[in-house]
Amino acid sequence: MSSPRRRIRKSAPVEPVPVPAVPAARREPTGLYHEEIFADGSVRPVRNTSRAERESDQALADFFGVAPQLNPASNTRSMESVLAALISKMDISMAEHAPEVLAEAWQRAVGPFLATKAELLSIARKQARIRTSHPAVRFELMRQKASIIRALNKTLGEGSVTTVQIVHG
């Protein structure tokens, strides 16, 4: 007996049904990329970005005086608004000072002897970082923490320093 075989019929090729094209600018962005129409008429994939990223890119474009990457008719901003936006994102506290100001405040706070044996590295987020390599000086600084905080606040302004961190090195 012969095995049952299905007969394969050759039929006429099926023509594809045309799908209406949606303009690239109207497509909803999905995933990481979407299509963007550029000034030269080309359509290319562009990475989706958040509003904060777009504002940051625009601020940098305005600051450096270059044309925006994707939108030539974007809103330009003043230098003050650009700098204010960048500084607000950097989370800089008012207690950070120049090294010369810190050295002078440190000299006044602890006196000439301790100022030569220990160094005020920085004041950030109301914390003063002090470096010393002498164990005896470290002990003395730990003992005088409260008076150091008072003296630094007197020199740099009230509320500038609330804690002291002493690092070895």
Number of helices: 5
| Share in helix | 25-40%
Question: What is the spatial order of strands in the main beta sheet?
Answer: 3-4-5
Structurally, how many domains make up the residues? 2
**Biggest sheet overview:** 3 strands, mixed
User: Which structural category fits the helices and strands?
Assistant: alpha+beta
CATH topology of the largest domain: GMP Synthetase, Chain A, domain 3
- Reported CATH architecture of the largest domain: 2-Layer Sandwich
Shape: elongated
Radius of gyration: 33 Å
Ranges with pLDDT <50 over ≥5 residues? 21-26
State the CATH class of the largest domain: Alpha Beta
The amount of beta strand, in percent, is: 15-25%
Distance N terminus to C terminus?
Answer: 95 Å
Q: Quick one: CATH superfamily of the largest domain? A: Fe-S cluster assembly (FSCA)
Structure write-up:
With 169 residues, the protein is of the alpha+beta class. The chain folds into two domains: 50 residues, no CATH class; 70 residues, GMP Synthetase, Chain A, domain 3. Helices cover 39% and strands 17% of the residues. It has five helices and five strands; from the N terminus they run E-E-H-H-H-E-E-H-H-E. The strands form two sheets. It has a three-stranded mixed β-sheet with strand order 3-4-5. The protein has a two-stranded antiparallel ribbon with strand order 1-2. The longest helix has 19 residues.
Question: How are the SSEs ordered, and which strands pair?
Answer:
Elements: E1 33-37, E2 43-47, H1 51-64, H2 79-90, H3 99-117, E3 118-124, E4 127-132, H4 135-143, H5 145-156, E5 163-168
Parallel strand pairs: 4-5
Antiparallel strand pairs: 1-2, 3-4
